[in-house]
Amino acid sequence: MEVLLGVFSQILTLRNLADKGKLEDEALEIISNGGIWVENGKIKKVGNFEQLAKEANNQEVEILEFPYADLVALPGFVDCHTHIAFAGNRAKDYALRIAGESYLNIAKAGGGILDSVRKTRQATENELIANTRQRADFLLRQGVTTIEVKSGYGLSVEEELKILRAIQRASLLTTADLVPTCLAAHTLPPEFSDKSAYLEHLANDLLPILLQENLCKRIDIFVEETAFPYQIAKDYLLKAKNLGFELTIHADQFTTGGSRLAVELNALSADHLEASQDIEIQMLAKSETVAVVLPGASLGLGMNFAPTRQLLDVGACVAISTDWNPGSAPMGDLLLQASVLAASQKLSTAETLAGITFRAAKALNLHHSKGRLQNGFSADIAIFPTKDYREILYWQGQMKPIIVWKNDKFVEF
Ligand code: NIG
Ligand code: FE
């Protein structure tokens, strides 16, 4: 099936932007009066609408002209770090936090991640499928067409499998592409008192099943003294790597260590980085590991943003994601968070858009097919009701796409 879409006041292809480092807005390729020619879910050509229409008229191509005067087309966004497969909420924790209690103290007192574990264990697989699908669709309405989804509120073989199976089933029900990640190493479950013993159990009894059932090919861990310290995390990740899994790490959220491990193991990404210092920032910049910053967690916890400007200045590949989860980041609005981060950290529009498109795709090893409007890439397109792309960040997430195009059709909301 071939379709020519248009007419777009502006198409931002992002196809010529560098994988890493600083980006100036002058580098943005903007096609005026543009058209996008798609074939079987992929982009065939991007260019001037009139010229493409002439070509299309000579062939069996459907021409779809939208009934709007002002439209800006961007690559569908990629949210490369979420925890949307959970049950219940943590409004009680949030009330305590805004009144001054710390995230770590709340966790010690029985709130925090283990509270969501209790609620998620009580939920059926069907409830988790419905929750995950609903949240994926909420992101899709914002133009997010690819969404990473972590397990991590099960913390036993059986419960982690329940969550990952639910993510797999939800991916058949939403139009967004879901990328599953196993975060069984989120925190120590109540059934264990020894962190190494728990991780050894996961490596022996869970990871092989994930491969057999084809449930996910990515492993994550929360590296922190209060969760899993550097050395025992390293032992676990090495086992996962030997089994062929891709790696990602919750790194440097409160203390450093995680990002160093991510670089040493050539992980796809090191995520959080609020506590990263010059040495970690330099290390990430020299590596191929994507630095994923999570403004939603900073907003949810009332903490500083990760040093995003510095990371870009020294040459890191920076992605921006929601971290949507019931505890630290309950909001789930990628564009709002990216806009606020950009205003605070002084990011250019090009850097901000790169962070939620092809640079986030790199954190998922999908940068050869997602995140740029380029021949051969997925035709995942977020279309906004404006003639000036700068309005998209200006409205700080309040301007939503009017059309999301994916899998050869309009996404029905
Ligand atoms: O990325 N830091 C660890 N994990 C999550 C929070 C999970 C939760 O609080 O439920 C995060 O912020
Ligand atoms: Fe997270």
UniProtKB/TrEMBL annotation:
<dbReference type="InterPro" id="IPR013108">
    <property type="entry name" value="Amidohydro_3"/>
</dbReference>
<dbReference type="GO" id="GO:0046872">
    <property type="term" value="F:metal ion binding"/>
</dbReference>
<keyword id="KW-0378">Hydrolase</keyword>
<dbReference type="InterPro" id="IPR005920">
    <property type="entry name" value="HutI"/>
</dbReference>
<feature type="domain" description="Amidohydrolase 3">
    <location>
        <begin position="117"/>
        <end position="385"/>
    </location>
</feature>
<keyword id="KW-0408">Iron</keyword>
<protein>
    <recommendedName>
        <fullName>Imidazolonepropionase</fullName>
        <ecNumber>3.5.2.7</ecNumber>
    </recommendedName>
</protein>
<dbReference type="Pfam" id="PF07969">
    <property type="entry name" value="Amidohydro_3"/>
</dbReference>
<dbReference type="InterPro" id="IPR011059">
    <property type="entry name" value="Metal-dep_hydrolase_composite"/>
</dbReference>
<keyword id="KW-0369">Histidine metabolism</keyword>
<keyword id="KW-0479">Metal-binding</keyword>
<keyword id="KW-0963">Cytoplasm</keyword>
<keyword id="KW-0862">Zinc</keyword>
<dbReference type="GO" id="GO:0019556">
    <property type="term" value="P:L-histidine catabolic process to glutamate and formamide"/>
</dbReference>
<dbReference type="GO" id="GO:0050480">
    <property type="term" value="F:imidazolonepropionase activity"/>
</dbReference>
<dbReference type="GO" id="GO:0005737">
    <property type="term" value="C:cytoplasm"/>
</dbReference>
<comment type="pathway">
    <text>Amino-acid degradation.</text>
</comment>
<dbReference type="InterPro" id="IPR032466">
    <property type="entry name" value="Metal_Hydrolase"/>
</dbReference>
